[in-house]
Amino acid sequence: MDNQSTQNGPPSVAGSDTSKSKPQLPPSCDPPQPGAPVKHKVWIVFGGTGHMGRSLVKCALHHGDFVTTVGRLHETSPEAMAALNSDTCLGLLCDVRDSSSVARVVQRTLDRFKRIDCIANCSGYGVIGACEDQDEYDLRNQFETNFMGTLHIVQASLPYFRQQNGGRYIIFSSTSGALGVPGLGPYCATKYAVEGLIEAMLYEVDSFNIKATLVEPGLVRRDEPDSGDSPLPTWGHFLIKPASEAYSHATSPALHAKRMVQWLGDRQPTSAVKCAELVWQLAHCSYPPLRLLLGSYAIESIRDRLRSVTEELEDWKHLNYPPPPDVPVGDPSDKTAREDRDESEDKEGKEESGEREESKEKEGEGEREGENEDVMDIVTPEPKETEGSG
């Protein structure tokens, strides 16, 4: 762990995991306290043999929870999953693109552990390449895995959670669910869809005491030691597709994601082990957030994106709201309103000018009448009294 994390607060998800201290969710979530007794929960972890899922399964088992870890069909052998079976762990295979396969996992977990408290979806698939270069198979496979897979998991388990009047979903999204990344266009689209789905669903099931959190990790490294002869690929759930000629030059924006993968290698700054600890706390806290961002890259990139959106809203809001009365004259955004205001002022000025001229004419006529009366007084002699008139 870096010194800055030690001095300024709880340990971050960056750095090595050599320290005994663990990252902790903020008190507002009411997370489980270190050393305090915790009720053991039953998990289903889809994608439990992948990058993030493996660390989460180990963390939950370490804390005494019960876990069904779900491997990917056609990728993990039944023998490998069976080797994971124990009193607290059940290993199964599943294809999240098939709703019946997901339903069997839910039922077998209920048969084994008699209940389900938390479902985590760590499964995912992405193709690195320009939008134009990805064919229909690439697009559909990403949507079937990332979006439809999440929907199948929700639809298979929601009836049980409603009947139980409680349950928790922890859905692994991505920073790509909050911003567009060149070279990951369709993958970003699937994560945007997942975030919209979960946020909408959360409103629908709030009365059933069902909660959900979207986890948005940024550049998570795999810091669990590999076991066996088949180590887990660092970027195993991504396929790098060769670029077409139009997007193949070295500085092409479409190659951004590929360059990032090649540059980082296994040097991602965020620890999967520490992320797993925080996700475990999510399942046991009283007030989980809708979104949990993990890693400094996730915080900085999404904050920059939100700042950009806010600035754009401010730049164009004048099209929908009347301008304030004290808008500077030099503001080009209020040109139309200013022209209307100037035209109105000119009209009022002309009316006032006409009234003043009319008033002056009336005053001039009154003065001329007064002068005529004075002149008549001068030229008209007063009548003299005649003698003997009395």
From TrEMBL:
Signal peptide feature range: none
Name of this chain's protein: Uncharacterized protein
Biased composition (Polar residues): 1-22
InterPro entries given in the database record: NAD(P)-bd_dom_sf, SDR_fam, SDR_oxidoreductase
Family annotation (PANTHER family): SHORT CHAIN DEHYDROGENASE, SHORT-CHAIN DEHYDROGENASE_REDUCTASE FAMILY PROTEIN
Annotated family: Belongs to the short-chain dehydrogenases/reductases (SDR) family.
Any single Pfam family the record assigns to this protein: adh_short
Organism: Remersonia thermophila
Record's keyword annotation contains Metal-binding: no
Keyword terms: Oxidoreductase
Stretch list, region Disordered: 1-36, 317-390
Basic and acidic residues bias: start-end ranges: 332-341, 347-369
Compositionally skewed regions (Pro residues) per UniProt: 24-35
